[in-house]
Amino acid sequence: MIQKLIDAIREKNAPVVVGLDPNLAFVPEHLQKAAADKISGAEICAGQKYTEEKAALYTASEAIWQFNKEIVDAVCDIVPAVKPQIAMYEQFGLPGLETYDRTVRYCRNKGLIIIGDVKRGDIGSTSESYARAHIGRTPVGGLEVPVFDVDFATVNPYLGTDGVKPFVDVCNTYDKGIFVLVKTSNPSSGEFQDVLTAGGVPMYELVAQKVREWGSVSMDGRYSNVGAVVGATWPEQGEKLRKLMPETFILAPGYGAQGASAADLAAFFDEEGSGAIVNSSRGIIAAWQKEPYRQYGPEGFAQAARAAALDMIEDLRQAIANR
Amino acid sequence: MIQKLIDAIREKNAPVVVGLDPNLAFVPEHLQKAAADKISGAEICAGQKYTEEKAALYTASEAIWQFNKEIVDAVCDIVPAVKPQIAMYEQFGLPGLETYDRTVRYCRNKGLIIIGDVKRGDIGSTSESYARAHIGRTPVGGLEVPVFDVDFATVNPYLGTDGVKPFVDVCNTYDKGIFVLVKTSNPSSGEFQDVLTAGGVPMYELVAQKVREWGSVSMDGRYSNVGAVVGATWPEQGEKLRKLMPETFILAPGYGAQGASAADLAAFFDEEGSGAIVNSSRGIIAAWQKEPYRQYGPEGFAQAARAAALDMIEDLRQAIANR
Fold first, then answer.
1. A199-224 per-position pLDDT tens digit
2. Cα–Cα distance for residue pair A125/A122, rounded to 1 Å
3. Active-site residue, B119 included
4. DSSP B196
5. Does B94 sit within 8 Å of A188, measured CB to CB?
6. pLDDT digits (tens, 9 = 90+) for B148-164
7. Which has the higher per-residue pLDDT, B310 or B49?
8. With an 8 Å Cβ cutoff, are B192 and A206 in contact?
9. I want to staple A249 with a disulfide (CB 3.0 to 4.6 A). Which of A223, A262, B88, B314 is the partner?
10. Domains in chain B and their CATH numbers?
């Protein structure tokens, strides 16, 4: 699967993934109103009506679905991948997860590669269930049923090999990939990840070593299907990790709204300008609310997202070229 | 919220939580058949039928729902709490999560305290969404809507304070609780959690210190609403952590099927015999498949679960009394 991502990045010359993390505050008023009108008139079945609370969750989920569709339509020819953040859907319960599911299928039909940002991880048998849910298939009724069925999932390593191996097995069975959290983009990521161990290296380096080991059984071309999340907000660590994990593809969140620049990211890429993909969520999907994209207005939110994505792509191309 | 759990444990004299992790292999044939009959004849709405794959997911979810109901009916007067493991539901997609949701509401109506074993954790704004989804409420349409609405959620600490604080804030707003992973029950938990840091203590002790710190702003009686997961499979670490975290209530998975005995757990409790609750999942809900509970047969699966729960309760009572 990682080779498919690499090929798609090359084809579009854009190492950029659009984070579909649609906070309701990013969704223009006209979409929220249309969703409210639609749901307030809707029936579940045969005259049954939603409760007020259910209707509110369905309205939000419908608004986000329409929002996602326009964003995806506007960027699908210029970026290789999207990264829906499942928490933003989970907060709206089952209706929200229905929108997550629909969004994933819509993006697949548009030819996009989908990174499900789920950050799951548990003990062995439980991680196996999560792996089935997100990148594998669930054996049931004599079938093998794909469930949320994204191409890559993000995975939390805190439980060790037990928690990650079921995902790697699924990567091998169904040609999928994962990105394991190594050094996350958030301000307090260092509290545990940067702790110096008695062996003289920070914890995130031990995690990086394990990621290489886990990934060695799932190579796909030059890189492994087992990638790593390394925050764009940590350029020094990114440069170090690029060298420590030469076969590990990096998913780098944190560009834009979280503060990282293209220059910070140059060292995340390999000598061919491959080896990493950079995520921006708010910076793209909420671009219409900020300069220099405010001119597009709420009705032009998707075109604002496209303009912001194009600017980000150009910014990264230059940073890679100028290394 | 932690005081409610402590009171419920005291009232039933049972520091036991039943893990509702219903692998389909635990669900007796007659329930699976009844579910298949029900779903194969079902209509979504107005004559619309499920696809074969959707029907398979709905059948599994229906079988698990009926299974859970009987288990809950059989144990709700003897245990204070249940712990549904969301991964086991997520693997069946939206129908599975509907069963999770129903199970939670059913347990609440039975007066049980519900620990949602979700092991979520992300960067700040994303953890806020997860916290809303599982223990808080989502602001939408002028309402504050409870979503999955369990009493406690399990939380992964790898991202540091940013990832945990949104959950703690929700604990304070809605009188809820969390259990943060400190030392997990699985065989490879030591790979990162036991790593000796340059300061001379293992990583899990650093996490334990943070858990105390996070919990200090959410005290509820003698204990904090911010608890810790410490695997019953690690008795020495459990004893040490009990002393290091005197205000931290412990959720201890790993009894029974994962290999821990009641004797291993004695030191997890405080001098009053409080301070911890022990989980068993398979050992209770799949008891009917094993000696000495096989006599109950598949039709008596719920009574087998009750018998296994009673034996576990007695086993722990004696271990606490004999310290």
1. 999 999 999 999 999 999 999 999 99
2. 8
3. yes
4. B
5. no
6. 999 999 999 999 999 99
7. B310
8. yes
9. A223
10. 2-321 (3.20.20.70)
Query: According to the model, what pLDDT value does residue B46 have?
Result: 64
pLDDT at residue A117, rounded to an integer = 98
Note whether B187 and B231 are within 8 A (CB).
Answer: no
- Residues of chain A with Cβ-Cβ distance to B85 below 8 Å are 122, 126
Task: Give me the catalytic one of A4, A54, A119, A165.
Answer: A119
Residue among A138, A158, A190 minimizing CB distance to B92: A138
A186 to B123: CB separation less than 8 angstroms, yes or no: yes
DSSP, collapsed to helix, strand or coil, labels residue A204 as helix
Question: What is the phi/psi pair of residue B16, to 5°?
Answer: -130, 135
Give the Cα separation of A201 and A196 in Å (integer): 6
Query: What torsion, rounded to 10 degrees, do the Cα atoms B31, B34, B39, B40 define?
Result: 130
pTM of the model: 0.97
For residue A292, is the peptide bond before it cis, meaning its omega torsion is within 30 degrees of 0? yes
Q: pLDDT by residue (tens digit) across B201-241? A: 999 999 999 999 999 999 999 999 999 999 999 999 999 99
pLDDT of B137 reads 98
Q: Name chain B contacts of A129, Cβ cutoff 8 Å.
A: 87-88, 90-91
Report the gap between the CA of B126 and the closest CA in chain A (Å). 6
